[in-house]
Amino acid sequence: MPEGRPAPPPAARRLPNPRLTGLGSTLFCGLVMLVLGLLTEALFGASGTVYGVLFLPVCVLTALWVREGDLLVAPVVVPIAFAVGLAPVADHGDGGLLDRLMGMVTGLATQAGWLYGGTLVAGLIVLSRRMRRVRAANRRTARNRPARP
Length: 149
Prior knowledge:
Helix content is 73%, strand content 0%. By secondary structure, it is mostly helical. The relative contact order is 0.14. It contains 6 helices and no strands.
């Protein structure tokens, strides 16, 4: 490290900054939501509100950790992951196939606010990251362009 620069604080050096591909962000989001759905079912008795609150940080992390080339994957993946994780949380009645299906439909309908909110958060983060990327590319292009006489 050069003598003139101070060392970054230890906390700043340890922050994770993974860059997930489209498939990686799909797996990350889907598996985390499934685990959170199972934990919500076990600890809170299938509370839709707890599940919805836990969904929001997963949306933020997915949108922040997806790599630049796969930015548009995040707003598509988070609603699918919400539905995957909702399976254990949804009311299953007596356990038949139609009861499970109706529980999923009811769960998606009653938790639509969390679903739309998380998707909106992921979309806004992806949109802002994309805008910063385009602005940086425009600045690089303008710097490299020769001056007109």
